[in-house]
Amino acid sequence: MGKKLSKKDQALANFIEATDKMEITSEEMLTLALKVHKVYAEVLGNYLASKAVIQFNYLENLKKRTALIKTAADFKAIVESDLAIMKAKKNKSTIEQIEYAICKKMYNDGALGKGEEFEYGKDITMKYDNEDIKFAGYFQPEELEKKAS
Question: What are phi and psi of 140, to 5 degrees?
Fold first, then answer.
């Protein structure tokens, strides 16, 4: 067992225990927890800053907001609203620039109908290492899954 915690480090250990549910009983465990958390934070920061993640997060948000639309005009109105808000924003951050670009693509390809159509019946599957990961469709994926069963 490692060296016992000093009174100074006990407050930090209590915080880690409360947030991570990890019992910290020694200086060694405190150091381990802090070093592991640093690696995790760096990777998480890189992940969240990646272009694909930013685009996917915007699309997932848009998907939730358009789940109950009844017409193409409804979809177009929502995307036009997003575009107007994004266009009006001055000094866009990197994330806002990426979201604006994917929003313009959704507007052009979807709302204006200039994009290619997806071939339904063809699953959205992606390789992750050697495993196939299957994704549902954009509109009401829960309903598509029920119909497939």
Answer: 45, 60
